[in-house]
Structures are given as C-alpha cells and as structure tokens.
Amino acid sequence: MVHYVSRKIAESRAAESDKVGPLRVGLRSVYSRPDDDEMIEKVIGPLRNEIDEVDSWDSVLSSLVNDAIGHIQNPGSQTPAEQFTQVVFLNNVIAENRPVARKPGLGHELIQRIYDANLTLSKQARNEGQLRLMKGVVSPSELAGKVLGKDKLD
Fold first, then answer.
1. Cα 141 from Cα 102, distance rounded (Å)
2. What is the mean pLDDT of residues 1-29?
3. Per-residue confidence (pLDDT) for residue 49, from 0 to 100
4. Which residues of 45-80 are buried (b: 16+ CB within 10 A; e: fewer)?
5. Percent helix, strand and coil across the chain, each to the nearest 5
6. Whole-prediction pTM
7. Spatial contact of 100 and 145, defined as CB atoms under 8 Å apart
8. d(CA 48, CA 149)
9. So where are the chain's domains?
10. Residue 152 has pLDDT above 70, yes or no
11. Cβ neighbour number for residue 141 with a 10 Å cutoff
C-alpha cells in the first residue's frame, strides 16, 4: 500500500493539469480496504499532505463520501463486491473521523451525512461482506449513529 500511495503521489506531481485526480484515486483505494492491520494510519499522511497542498482535502473526501453513499443507495448498478467496497470505504471514513465526530467540522459533517442517508445494505452486499470478513456487516448509517451517540436510525 505504501508503494501504491507513492505512485499516486508521483503521478500527481508529474501531471500537467489534473493533480488531484491521482490523489483522489489513491485516497479512495486507501479507505476501500478493511483496516484490520491499521494500514490507513500508516499511509494516509503523505497522501493527505499532497491533497492539502492543492487545498482539496475537504472537497475530495466529501465527494468520495457522496459517491459511496450514492452507490449504496443504487445497488443495482454494481456487483456485490463493489457495493461491499463502498461500505468498507464509508466505515473507514467514520472510524478515521470518530475522534472528532461530535465536534463541529468536516469529520462531524461527513459522519452526519452518512447517518442521514439511512443506508441499508442489499442482501448481496451483506453476503459479500460475510464471505470476505467472516463476520456480520454493519450499515455505515448504523455505525455513524453509534459514533454520533444516537441509539437507532430515525
């Protein structure tokens, strides 16, 4: 993963016009894998620094969250594996922003947006998650509700 992030940073630096594109792809990839090994914490720093240099962290992360929410809300357009990847992405965003979840700012806004989306997972996405993780899969909206201190979805 470290080499992958380094490649995306190098692609961004070499780009003539769209410096954010490779960084956006890199960020999505980093957050789209289960983080049992805590790899996100190990690799996110350089990627975030590059995105911050072009003043795009908030907009890139926000647009990726919106994309993931949209994909989960429209499961017919994706395979179960792709749906599950979106779930992992959102759950990782929630986990990374958990320390600031109840403070004003981007972290709270993203978690609130995920909660407000009231996401339900398709049966196929749940099955895919159980196959990959060997445990039950929680909806990102449920997880967001717990982090925000709300017992259940409204």
1. 16
2. 92
3. 95
4. eebbebbeeeebbeebbeebbeebbebbeebeebeb
5. 75, 0, 25
6. 0.90
7. no
8. 28
9. 1-54, 56-154
10. no
11. 23
